[in-house]
Amino acid sequence: MKILVTGASGLIGAALCARLTGESHEVVRVLHHADTGVHPEIQTVSLDMARALRPQDWTPYLAGVDAVVNCAGVLQDSARENTRHVHSTGASALFTACEQAGVNKVIHFSAIGVDRQQPSAFSASKLAGDEALMARSLSWVILRPSVVLGRPAFGASALFRGLAALPLLPLMPDTGRLQVVQLDDVISTVLFFLQPGSPSHLTLDLAGPEALSMSEVVGRYRRWFGWSSAREFILPNWAAAILYRFGDAAAQLGWRPPMRSNAAKEIARGAVGDPQPWMTATGIQPSSLTSALRLNPATVQERWFAGLYFVKPALFVVLPLFWIMTGIISLTAGWRSGVDLLIGTAAGPLAEPAVVAGALADIAVGALIAWRSTSRLGLFGAIAVSLFYATAGSILRPDLWLEPLGPLIKILPILVLHFAALAILEER
Questions:
Q1: How many Cα atoms are found within 13 Å in the side-chain-facing hemisphere of 310?
Q2: 65 vs 73, 85, 101, 141, 393, CA distance in Å?
């Protein structure tokens, strides 16, 4: 079969494409941004679902396609994401294009509980997309998974690993229970419904066999890592609200933190459902979290990732602040000190312009690091500026290497931090 998969770089989409390719299906991966050079053997289409809002935007990519699996989804509106366009308008355009192109089989990923309650734009737009598909004359299946966990560290799988690494576990207030479902079971479900003659016009909750609190999920990951239980405390509502707002602010800069306002609304509802219709339709027996983790022992890579999970946001808060504040201080309270450092050196006549130029460069580097789409460029810029400062300082003021506060020696750990940030920059 030739199968078009949207959201092909996400947790479900990436795993599905790998499984389909391994079973000799022809796959067309639809990505927001094409990953040039990755999986060159698989046809890849660069198409932003939030912009592909007309059926004709999809028609060229449906030629010869036998089935479509829509895995695209975003958590919250931001500078990079639009829930209504991705989940509803863009999805509806895709379904209409499928109908017009004669692509009859469509498997669509929604979210558990959206038919019962829509506390946020995420769930409301997901439900709108479900209804758009049900209105089409297609052989459709709507899958509504609970929180999907798997070996890949992405989204909730990554968050729970990171939380498990904390010796003191902060718990968000007002969180519902979760029937977490395993990625392998989700992928097996899609493969079942891609088979010829499989049932259609079904809406199924994909839920695990046990309803767990977030504390219990994190506890299972800690035991998987081989660590004892963490001490727990519930964050006060005001502290949780601040963290969610910080997440919203990071999203406006292009990052994708899992803790945002929509997440707060969704986890208050919980992610529970009845897996029996799913089990009856497919014969799949969903795995528990404990049994799934037992089959995949934790490795040193897993422990490294968990330990670094919250180090990453700390780096990308501290580094932009460091550079921006350094530039501001150089132009204000530190102006005289900066100029005096250059007076009496070969650069003395240009001391004031040099301080201004350095300050502006610092601010620019910090802004580039803070903005997700330019963060890699900003990190390389920071490394280049640091090396320049080390070289210029060694030539103009070599005595600074021997200063008690080590203004030049401190460049070395700063360089290391930027290389560490580059190493953990990628999100998927």
A1: 13
A2: 22, 23, 9, 17, 62
Residues in the chain: 428
Band of pLDDT at residue 265, cut at 50, 70 and 90: confident
Distance CA 147, CA 258 (A): 12
Which helix or strand (DSSP H or E) is residue 106 part of? strand 105-109
Say which DSSP state 201 is in. S
Classify burial at 345, counting beta carbons within 10 Å of its beta carbon; exposed 0-12, middle 13-18, buried 19 or more.
middle
The predicted-structure confidence for 318-339, as pLDDT tens digits, reads as follows 999 999 999 999 999 999 999 9
What tokens does 14 get? Answer: 């990436």
For residue 339, the SS3 value is: helix
Q: For residue 194, how many other CB atoms are within 10 A of its CB?
A: 20
Question: The tokens of 105 are what?
Answer: 């089989």
Contacts of 117 (CB under 8 A, 6+ apart): 123, 269
- What is the DSSP-derived secondary structure letter of residue 178? B
Backbone angles phi, psi at 29, to 5 degrees: -90, 125
Give the three-class secondary structure for 408.
coil
How many angstroms separate the Cα of 152 from the Cα of each of 40, 95, 358, 411, 428?
21, 29, 42, 35, 9
d(CA 149, CA 177) in angstroms, rounded, equals 15
Q: Tokens in use for 270?
A: 């919980």
pLDDT over threshold 60, residue 36? no
